[in-house]
Amino acid sequence: MPLPERQPFATGGTFGSLILVALISVLLLPQQGLIAGDFGFNVIDVEAVPGEPFAMSVEGDWTANIGGFQLSLQLPFGLPVDDLGISVDNTLVGELDPDFLQVNIDMAAGELIYAVLFDALPPFDGTVMPPVGFPLAVAEITGTVPQGTPDQDLLINPVDGLGSPPINNIFVVGVDSIPAENLSGGYIQVREPPVEQVFIRGDVNLDALVDIADIIFHLNYTFLDGPTPLCLDAGDANDDGVSDISDSIFLMYYLFLDGQQPWPPFHMPGTDYTPDGIGCEQGL
What we know:
Blueprint: H1 14-28, E1 40-43, E2 46-48, E3 53-61, E4 68-74, E5 82-87, H2 92-95, E6 100-106, E7 111-117, E8 136-144, E9 152-158, E10 170-173, E11 176-179, E12 182-184, E13 186-190, H3 212-223, H4 232-235, H5 245-256
Parallel strand pairs: 1-12, 2-13
Antiparallel strand pairs: 1-3, 3-8, 4-7, 4-9, 4-10, 5-8, 6-7, 9-13, 10-11
Helix pairs in contact: 3-5
């Protein structure tokens, strides 16, 4: 007896259409109990020294198992950063070895788009990252500010709708895209490191000599309302962390009574080897 011919599944009829609509409705149903306000991205401020690489952390916060995320970051126009990049290196996300990583950086448009999916390739083992109850680093922005860049603050800001087609900041939960509504930008704080001042201990008037003029300058400052030394560390001849009458006496003994010489730096300009509460606003 011949077998009946197999009929292809059709969705053109009323019953097939109902099944298709039902399946789509289930797939597009939002995850119950999820609140978009519980999801967010926060870019963390970082200090960048011109000529040296920096690493800027992007933190995420979520309340359900996520299968990935998408970042849409607005960059300042003319961002003075070389080799700008973003990755999941040095994060727990990177430890999951995501199947899909897509970066699109458009410096001219001021846009950085980053998409991450943990389980996008066979055998589809359902890799997810559970919530941890606190913000967690999910990505790292890296680059180098060129030498000579002046001090400034450069805002990296999560903004929805960048790119073409428009990209939003989202988390992937099951088959749903959950908006990241808590968005906070961070600054690349470009700062030249302070120049450490050098001085000769006992050279109170900063003429590169240690002589009686320094004793007079110190006494005027201490007792006669004279000008404050620009480098108090230089006036701390005995290196006790205080600039006072004892330093004038110390210098008198050294210069006229064969007393002990001031502590380093002495003879040649240098920096203070001992930490104390006084500093050197301007040295030699």
